[in-house]
Amino acid sequence: xxxxxxxxxxxxxxxxxxxxxxxxxxxxxxxxxxxxxxxxxxxxxxxxxxxxxxxxxxxxxxxxxxxxxxxxxxxxxxxxxxxxxxxxxxxxxxxxxxxxxxxxxxxxxxxxxxxxxxxxxxxxxxxxxxxxxxxxxxxxxxxxxxxx
Length: 148
Fold this sequence. Notes:
By secondary structure, the protein is mainly β. It has one domain (7-146): PEBP-like (Phosphatidylethanolamine-binding Protein, Alpha-Beta Complex), CATH 3.90.280.10. Helices cover 5% and strands 33% of the residues. The chain has one helix spanning 125-132; strands at 7-9, 34-37, 45-52, 61-69, 75-76, 83-84, 106-115, 136-146. The strands form 2 sheets. A 5-stranded antiparallel β-sheet has the order 6-4-3-7-8, with no helix packed on it. Strands 1-2-5 form a 3-stranded antiparallel β-sheet, with no helix packed on it. Strand 3 and strand 4 form a beta hairpin. It starts with 6 loop residues before the first strand and ends with a strand.
C-alpha cells in the first residue's frame, strides 16, 4: 500500500484545519464535503473512514465509515448514499466531533482507501482494517481539528 496519486481534500476544512460547529455532533452534525481524485486505475471500490485517535479510548473513536463508493466518485457530501458502517456512537452514518469539554484539540482523520476488491457488508473500522489491509492499493487523508 502506498500514497501516490490518490488525494482527498475538503472545501469545508479550512487551511488551518478547523472544522466548523456545523460539522460537530451538537452543531448541525453535517459531514464535511470530501473531494477525491487520483484514484488508481486498478481500484474497484473506495472506502472513507473518519477517525479520532485523540479520543480517550484504547482505539480512538470512529465517526464515519462509508463503503461501496464507486471509483469515479469525485465528491462525497451530506447527501451521499453509500453504505454506511456503524460509527462508535453505535449509529449508521456520520456522527460529528464531540470531544470531551476541556480535553484540548482533537484531530479528525478523514481517510480514503482505494481497494482492489469490494467491501462486503458494513464492517466496523477495525474489522475493515484487519480484513481489507491486503486490498488497499493506495490511501490518503485530510485532517480536521475540533475542540470544545
